[in-house]
Design brief:
493 residues, 18 helices, Cytochrome p450, 12 strands, three-stranded antiparallel beta sheet
């Protein structure tokens, strides 16, 4: 082939490359054209810096790639590297134009300003947790339902009532696990925390029912942060089937409880389900079955996932840092020594003496950041840090970036409970349970469960992991890929 032939080929290659670049530019501009063109020039100019990504999928491939790698923070780092450290970025996430906020000032504004923001969860979360649950109901309905459900899981009276039950379950579980040989520590912890939350909400369900429910919840939880693709083979499709099974079981439980209450007039309240069946508004209207079931779906899921995972991570982190393990154990030994003669079991008095253990739990919550973000939606155009968040756009409050910010927490990737000595976090800098009116209502109960478990573990057991170097998974929540396979070993005193 002569020079003219090569030149001709180069010409066509150049045209092909040009077409590809134009197509790429057109595709990358599609979301901008769809979601920004109607905003007007002034509002468009005041949008935060960022990238709306590709049509339909937006930035989700970048997000999934980062969180399936060994460096999940590379997702936000890519925005910082391209658009600067403003702490607020436009994006396209979970099927919607979105604003990601990563700094305390912006997080605080979004979480506390109920006049400007409402829940903005993705379709997958709404469908799986339920449209009548806390994740999507109005501010007024949320306030009413929260008042009803918070009392049985928080506060002095509630925590005192559950302490003996939790402690009995923990002591029994640890003894049982120590005799089982190799176990998946996380799997067993999730079963334990599920038993506890089932007792609080449904009190008397059988072991078989609890096992089936917990299995379905495991499947459902994987779909909560997934793309809402309802096709066989996708996580969301399996999660929808799990929700259907959960609703069927819970509907049976609710119906049977209603019949039992009708047959036993004046039946006293035993658990949260009784409270939900009894509640009525100022007009005498009671909750419908759908509202009750969606509330149960939400609480039963949230009430065991976070407690189980954080208990596992606290144990792992203490076990891998002997100096902190020693301090925590000595504190628990002092507490036991100072208990009144004849007292059996812990009370809230001992729980409140666990000052160092509380720091261990807070540091674990910060480092692990079980829920890496929460979702809101702008009810109107909102100005934050000089940028406009347009009405209808979703806002992703990125807890992980706040908790791993070296300006707030020096050496943020290090586990160091002592960083909490005399530290009172400023508003918006410590958000393990969210903040504002939508603060997780079970936060006190979760910390109580974790503390009781660690108390008995520190005094009597140690964890021997099968593979301490096991890589992590980061979705839907951080955990070792082997679910912390290992042995619980009873130590001699």
């Amino acid at each position: 082939m002569g020079f003219d032939g090569l030149g001709g080929m180069g010409f066509y290659v150049g045209i092909l490359l040009g077409v590809v670049l134009i197509l790429k530019w057109g595709l990358k501009s599609a979301n901008i054209w769809i979601y920004e063109r109607h905003l007007g020039e002034t509002k468009r100019r005041s949008l935060p810096p960022g990238d709306l990504g590709w049509p339909l999928i937006g930035n989700m491939l970048l997000f999934l790639r980062a969180f399936k790698s060994t460096d999940p923070d590379s997702f936000i780092s890519s925005f910082v590297n391209r658009f600067g450290s403003s702490g607020i970025y436009k994006s396209f996430m979970f099927g919607s134009p979105s604003i990601i906020v990563t700094v305390p000032e912006a997080c605080r504004k979004v979480l506390f300003d109920d006049d400007a923001f409402k829940p903005g969860w993705p379709t997958a979360t709404l469908e799986l947790i339920g449209r009548k649950s806390f994740v999507s109901i109005s501010y007024e309905d949320h306030k009413r339902l929260r008042k009803l459900t918070a009392a049985p899981v928080n506060g002095h009276e509630a925590l005192s009532m559950y302490m003996q039950y939790i402690e009995t379950k923990v002591v029994f579980a640890l003894e049982k696990w120590s005799q089982m040989g190799q176990i998946e520590f996380l799997t067993q912890l999730r079963k334990l925390t599920f038993q506890i939350i089932m007792h609080i909400f449904l009190s008397s369900e059988s072991e078989d029912v609890m096992e089936v429910l917990e299995k379905e919840y495991t499947i459902l939880n994987y779909g909560v942060r997934a793309l809402a693709i309802n096709i066989p083979g996708f996580v969301y499709h399996s999660a929808l089937k799990a929700r259907k099974n959960l609703v069927t079981i819970l509907q049976r439980i609710v119906s049977e409880r209603r019949k039992k209450r009708e047959a036993t007039l004046g039946m006293s309240k035993r658990d949260m389900l009784d409270a939900l069946l009894d509640t009525e508004d100022e007009n005498g209207k009671r909750l419908e079955d759908e509202e009750i079931i969606d509330t149960l779906v939400m609480y039963l899921n949230a009430g065991h996932e976070s407690s189980g995972h954080i208990t596992m991570w606290s144990t792992i982190l203490l076990q891998s840092h002997p100096e902190y393990f020693k301090i925590a154990k000595e504190e628990q030994e002092r507490i036991v020594k100072d208990m009144p003669p004849g007292q059996k079991g812990l009370t809230l008095k001992e729980f409140r003496q666990m000052e160092y253990l509380s720091k261990v739990i807070d540091e674990t919550l910060r480092l692990v950041t079980f829920s890496l973000m929460t979702f809101r939606e702008a009810k109107k155009d909102v100005d934050i840090k000089g940028y406009t968040i347009p009405k209808g756009w979703k806002v992703l409050v990125w807890f992980r970036s706040v908790h791993h910010n070296p300006e707030i927490y020096p050496q943020p990737k290090e586990f160091n409970p002592s960083r909490w000595d005399n530290l009172v976090p400023k508003a918006g800098t410590f958000l393990p349970f969210g903040a504002g009116s939508r603060l997780c209502p079970g936060n006190d109960l979760a910390k109580l469960e974790i503390a009781i478990f660690l108390h008995h573990f520190l005094l009597n057991y140690r964890l021997e992991r099968h593979n301490p170097a096991c890589p992590f998974m980061h979705l839907p929540h951080p955990r070792p890929k082997d679910n912390c396979l290992g042995r619980i070993i009873k130590v001699s005193k």
